[in-house]
Amino acid sequence: MLVGDTAGEKARVLAEIRDTQTPAGWPTSDMQRSLEVLLQQTAALRAEEEAKQARKAHANAKRAAAKAERERADRMKEMLKDPDEWLREAERSVDARGTHNYKAAADILHDLREAVGGDEGDKITRRHAEKLSKKYPTLTHLKSSLRKRGLL
Q1: Which of 60, 61, 79, 81 has the most CB atoms lying inside 10 A of its own CB?
Q2: Contact by Cβ (8 Å): 94, 136
Q3: CA 135, 136, 137, 142 torsion: positive or negative?
Q4: What is the pLDDT of residue 62?
């Protein structure tokens, strides 16, 4: 055994050991389930998983909305300190051009109106919105954004 082909001997010994043992097969059992039962179980598991994902998405959306509201409240506190700075910020957004900037300017003016509150906040923001619409008479997207926020 030591003098001959060791790799061949090793393979022969392993093959002999495998042949002497009974093979372990798959543990099978007849569950007596039909295809319809399997499909029903699959549908139930899928519905459970979808409900779980929907609950998770709802929780994430709720958390994101709460965070956005906190950030908005903090921004509105800052707006009370210096409203003129926020009016200039709205004008800078409009000067940057682009529909997303027009929407941002309208959002700034809307938040400023709520932050200042009352007739004074409404008067300040409406006056500034009218000023912007007169300064940029051809920017229809700007006017549309301001109208949607109730500023024109």
Answers
A1: 79
A2: yes
A3: negative
A4: 97
Helical ranges in the chain per DSSP H: 6-20, 35-81, 83-95, 99-116, 118-135, 140-148
Is residue 104 within 8 A of residue 110, CB to CB? The reply is no
Contacts of 150 (CB under 8 A, 6+ apart): 110
Enumerate the domain spans of the chain: 47-148
CA geometry: angle 136, 102, 76, nearest 5 deg: 120
Q: Name the pTM for this structure.
A: 0.59
Euclidean distance between CA atoms 69 and 57, whole angstroms:
18
Q: Give the tokens for residue 117.
A: 């509150």
Sort residue 25 into left (φ over 0), alpha (ψ -120 to 50) or beta: beta
Among candidate residues 104, 79, 107, 84, the one with its CA nearest the CA of residue 94: 104
Cα–Cα distance for residue pair 38/25, rounded to 1 Å: 24
Hey, what are 47's tokens? 């519905």
pLDDT of 8 higher than 90: no
